[in-house]
Amino acid sequence: xxxxxxxxxxxxxxxxxxxxxxxxxxxxxxxxxxxxxxxxxxxxxxxxxxxxxxxxxxxxxxxxxxxxxxxxxxxxxxxxxxxxxxxxxxxxxxxxxxxxxxxxxxxxxxxxxxxxxxx
Length: 119
Description:
Layout: E1 3-7, E2 10-14, H1 17-23, E3 27-31, E4 35-41, E5 51-58, E6 62-69, E7 72-79, E8 84-89, E9 96-100, H2 104-118
Parallel strand pairs: 7-9
Antiparallel strand pairs: 1-2, 2-3, 4-8, 5-6, 6-7, 8-9
């Protein structure tokens, strides 16, 4: 499972070994100022993924990597699509991140609190 957390003024996505192999990425950093919205969406796993480039997708099982859909570039890192945190970004390589997390509400609160402290 990926680790989504705040380090200083950055949002960090740290992927485990299996996640890295399936998504072709290991660690990503985004300035908190680029986070437009962050929320928990229990149904995001039901939405269409788009075109995979590069990544892994086995419907109902795993989605890892970069997907393009209707002009939106999304990085997915979910198993079975449950408990996913969605991060909408501006001015970054990705428009959205969809990351599974054991405690999605807690990580959303952590990111929002870190963003508020920058204001």
